[in-house]
Amino acid sequence: MWKDILWSWKRCQSVFEASNHWHASSRENILKKILNDCDQRSIKHLVKSNRRKTTVELQAMFNRKSKSISPHTMRRELKGLGLNSCVALRKPLISEDNRK
């Protein structure tokens, strides 16, 4: 019994020395979620209703309604929701002469 415990301890210690950190304490386990599902839906609705706003403007609008978050957090959440940046193209005014 003691041999099994000692063997498993040595194995864990060699894993720790090889990777310089315990495999159980990864970054996901350390970070806490700032926004819950309701906040994420609120952000998505805010973006859909204001498509031309910048992330800083959206962040200011969100801070007025709900929690206070940074622009970096807003960008990270938008990327996590699958909303990538895109700029609407400016469409030229086409007159009757140019349509032909």
UniProtKB/TrEMBL annotation:
Pfam families: HTH_Tnp_Tc3_2. Residues 40-100 form the Transposase Tc1-like domain. This is Transposase Tc1-like domain-containing protein. The lineage of its organism: Eukaryota, Metazoa, Chordata, Craniata, Vertebrata.
